[in-house]
UniProtKB/TrEMBL annotation:
Family, similarity comment: Belongs to the heat shock protein 90 family.
Keyword tags: ATP-binding, Chaperone, Cytoplasm, Nucleotide-binding, Stress response
Gene source species: Xanthocytophaga agilis
Gene giving rise to this polypeptide: htpG
Full protein name: Chaperone protein HtpG
Boundaries of every Histidine kinase/HSP90-like ATPase domain copy: 28-168
Length: 606
């Protein structure tokens, strides 16, 4: 196979293909190195495959790809010792843009079992070199017996030349003569960082600056049966060196109806969704593609960390982002199911251990229940709620627990909750005096979670423990006798309105137990929810409504009797004082009002 010197024109449909490649096809110029290294890996993988099939009988030697640069000569070179090319193959695979050698190879060996290890797909990756190079040269020698070395060169236009090459050993060198506007890539640290970003898990050793920079056998490419916990933890540290150890993980290994491998880790979630996003990396045959995986992974699962690898994920021509495809939806659904199954398995196998982890994973589970109905159906059986005594229960267990005591006159089970046990302790203790239980729902998504639960459960409502007086929160039509007549109630209400002089207060007089506060201030449940929804990304209009507090005067309290008997000056002082007590119980008293309250307390004790 003699190399004949030749000049010609690259077979493409438009003379403007190179500007398109440089400016539009690959928006990120560093991608050139990923593409060239991927092509080199392909060349080595093909040789391995041909050797295993008996179609190459020579010594394989140490198969690897080498990346080097020469700052003085302004060159970057990607070398491999794979199958190489003949002059005819150069004309076929290089001069005809978008003719994919990998695609042809896969077709030829599709029944041989391991062809899917080939990375290339579109036949355009080589031309990404012209994003940074003013001239590109190929030096190559085919593995075929009797082949002659060949050289190809082009200056980024449609003209090329093929001459005899200088390479004496099987394989290919791609030599980039770097353009003036791309000199930034003639830097050791820049190149090494790009290689580590895109090629750190490629399946063939990549040598740079005298050392191999990649892990050729990441754990997601291995069988779960061959791995121990320490292997998964070590790989997590490799991905996220400064993170705490994960709680547990899922090893994905699917070959039908699509190919998918990967490892997803459950991190310890803090009460902040923004800290955990964009931690899943997407690969295609061990080539890094992106950490933007919102189409592959449901929104709520983006809180997980780890790696997903699939050759069946449809990418655009530049392998930079996902394209819409039915496989994406299938993979999305499968991952959701695997995560739900794993959580269910952990819950059933070790309830105590699951409870111990729940504070770290509860945010994630609730997010999934709010966002995905299918996930909700599975998660409702293992999601836990915790009461103020730090006891855990599933939703159904808890409903059955409180049903005998906390069912109102309409037959609805009322679940009481607190968003701040410390600040709302007065109301919690009031509920406990009546034998009621109170949940802790103080997470950033709990306002949405509460709405989801109410929409799914019939005859169940959730009410914040400080959103009304306890007898109204769980209205059982049990009447409490009041000791005031209508005239006294009328006077009491008017005096409070005149003294407090606040249009955002709705004042009423009610008979409450004598051990309740003389005055209770509450914000109605619906208004609290609107405000909470506005804070967590709901409709901002919800937070714009004026806040109207309900002020309930306990007509049976001894201090109420004193107010009725006092002269006007004393009466105003007492009204202000019991109102401030109510504010204090809701953590609403501060600044000068708190100072006045303290001084008034001292004056009243004289």
């Amino acid at each position: 196979m003699t190399v004949t010197e030749e000049k010609g024109t690259i077979s493409i449909h438009t003379e403007n293909i190179f500007p398109i490649i440089k400016k539009f096809l690959y928006s990120d110029h560093e991608i050139f190195l990923r593409e060239l290294v991927s092509n080199a890996i392909d060349a080595v993988q093909k040789l391995k495959r041909l050797s295993s099939l008996g179609e190459y009988g020579g010594e394989l030697g140490e198969l690897k790809v080498k990346v080097s640069f020469d700052e003085a000569a302004k060159t970057i070179t990607v070398s491999d010792n794979g199958i190489g090319m003949t002059a005819d193959e150069i004309k076929k695979y290089i001069n005809q843009i978008a003719f994919s050698g990998a695609k042809e190879f896969l077709e030829k060996y599709k029944d041989a079992g391991e062809g899917n290890q080939i990375i290339g797909n579109f036949g355009l990756g080589f031309y990404s070199a012209f994003m940074v190079a003013e001239r590109v040269e190929i030096q190559t020698l085919s593995f075929r017996e009797g082949a002659q070395a060949a050289r190809w060169a082009s200056e980024g236009n449609t003209e090329f030349e093929i001459t005899k090459g200088e390479r004496t050993e099987r394989g290919t060198d791609i030599i980039l003569h770097v353009a003036e506007d791309s000199k930034e890539f003639l830097d050791k640290f820049r190149l090494e960082n790009i290689l580590k970003k895109y090629s750190r898990f490629m399946p063939i050793a990549i040598e740079f600056d005298g050392k191999v920079i990649n892990n050729t056998a990441p754990i997601w490419a291995k069988s779960p049966n061959d791995l121990k916990d320490e292997d998964y933890l070590a790989f997590y540290k490799e991905l996220y060196p400064f993170s705490e150890d994960p709680l547990f993980w899922i090893h994905l290994n699917v070959d039908y109806p699509f190919n998918l491998t990967g490892v997803l880790y459950f991190p310890k979630l803090k009460n902040d969704l923004s800290l955990h996003r964009e931690k899943i990396q997407l690969y295609s045959r061990q080539v890094f593609i992106t950490d933007e995986v919102k189409d592959i992974v449901p929104e709520f699962l983006m809180l997980l960390h780890g790696v997903i690898d699939s050759p069946d994920i449809p990418l655009n021509v530049s392998r930079s982002y996902l394209q819409a495809d039915s496989n994406v939806k299938k993979i999305n659904t499968h991952i959701t199911k695997k995560v739900a199954d794993k959580l269910s398995e952990l819950f059933k196998a070790d309830r105590k251990g699951f409870e111990e982890k729940f504070d770290d994973i509860g945010l994630f589970i609730k997010y999934g229940m709010v966002a995905d109905d299918k996930f909700y159906e599975k998660a409702k059986d293992f999601v836990l709620v915790k009461n103020t005594d730090n006891q855990y229960a599933t939703i159904e267990e808890y409903r059955q627990k409180v049903e005998p005591v906390q069912t109102d006159k309409e037959g609805s089970v009322v679940m009481l909750y607190t968003t701040d046990p410390g600040k709302q302790d007065t109301f919690i203790q009031s509920a406990k005096k009546r034998g009621y239980d109170v949940l802790q729902l103080n997470g950033i998504l709990d306002s949405h979670f509460i709405n989801t639960l109410e929409s799914k459960f019939e005859k169940v409502s959730l009410k914040r423990v400080d959103s009304d007086t306890i007898d109204k929160l769980i209205n059982k039509e049990e009447t409490i006798s009041g000791i005031l007549n209508d005239e006294e109630k009328k006077n009491l209400k008017e005096w409070f309105e005149q003294t407090l002089n606040d249009k955002n207060l709705s004042i009423s007089v009610s008979p409450l137990p004598t051990d309740e506060l003389p005055v209770t201030i509450t914000l109605p449940e619906f208004m609290r929810r609107m405000q909470d929804m506005a804070k967590t990304g709901g409709n901002p209009m919800f937070g714009s409504f004026p806040t109207t507090y309900q002020v309930t005067i306990n007509e049976n309290h001894t201090l109420t009797q004193e107010i009725l008997k006092a002269d006007e000056a004393k009466r105003r002082q007492l009204i202000r004082h019991v109102y401030d007590l109510a504010l204090l119980s809701q953590n609403l008293l501060s600044g000068s009002h708190l100072t006045s309250f303290i001084q008034r307390t001292l004056d009243l004790t004289k």
